[in-house]
Amino acid sequence: MQGSSRAAAVGSREALTGALAATADRSRLAEELFAVVGALDSNPTLRRALADPSREGADKASLAEQLLAGKVSAETLVVLKGVVGQRWSTERDLSDTLESYGVETVIAAAEAADRADRVEDELFHFERIVAANEQLRGALGDQTVAAEHRAALVDSLLQDKVAPETLALARQAVVAPRGRRFDRTVAGFLDTASARREQQTATVTSAVPLTEDDRNRLAVELASIYGGKVHLNTVVDPRVLGGVKIEIGDEVIDGTIMRKIDAARRAMGA
């Protein structure tokens, strides 16, 4: 985001915070925010009107209220007015921020139910499953197939197997990719979750599944190194043979046996 959009995102956050505090039905709030994003994406005229930097913020907020009062909850309207009342560098920055607030609202619902870690784990692993299955990846990403059919496919795969918040985010990523690949959309959702929870995320690859004790110990060690909470996304890959590979931010700590074998081969000129 450019400077004015960064300031707009900061300025609009109070509206989201207030809406989350005011409503117990965060699922509805998230659904409505996602629906508003869809409406803006499909209606360029409306999007330009609400993002127009030459119009007064109060004027744009009034327009939003005229259009949506009685059609969405009071909390959703508060968030929307708080967002459109700011000055955005681009129209996309406005809709991206609304989408991120929808994701945050889903995560807030998971936090209230004490399953935010579970949601992050499930969403990460679903993306990995999709990435490894070319047929499934194609089916979920086929924009010529109606959105409701793609949503139904997600339901058939995840219904009653994951947390409701995981299902909501997986459906949203498939139904409204907004020009992005599924993996990029999910990565963005997970980044939003990490930012909301004020944590860093580490992807840990090992030859065998880590035990819960291993996960907890590694999370504590990484937190002591990087500061703050660290959430682990784990990947099992027998090809690494042993040890672990850790990716956190832009850093990679590769302590796998395969890496050591590769290093030995290079040293021998193989």
UniProtKB/TrEMBL annotation:
GO cellular component, one term: proton-transporting ATP synthase complex
Membrane topology: Peripheral membrane protein
Places the protein is found: Cell membrane; Membrane
UniProt cross-references to PROSITE patterns, sorted A to Z: ATPASE_DELTA (PS00389)
Domain of life (superkingdom): Bacteria
Keywords, comma-separated and alphabetical: ATP synthesis, Cell membrane, CF(1), Hydrogen ion transport, Ion transport, Membrane, Transport
Annotated InterPro entries: ATPase_OSCP/d_CS (IPR020781), ATPase_OSCP/dsu (IPR000711)
Residue ranges that the Swiss-Prot or TrEMBL entry lists as coiled coil: none
GO molecular function: proton-transporting ATP synthase activity, rotational mechanism
Family membership noted in the UniProt record: Belongs to the ATPase delta chain family.
Protein function: This protein is part of the stalk that links CF(0) to CF(1). It either transmits conformational changes from CF(0) to CF(1) or is implicated in proton conduction. F(1)F(0) ATP synthase produces ATP from ADP in the presence of a proton or sodium gradient. F-type ATPases consist of two structural domains, F(1) containing the extramembraneous catalytic core and F(0) containing the membrane proton channel, linked together by a central stalk and a peripheral stalk. During catalysis, ATP synthesis in the catalytic domain of F(1) is coupled via a rotary mechanism of the central stalk subunits to proton translocation.
Name this polypeptide is given: ATP synthase subunit delta
Designated gene of the protein: atpH
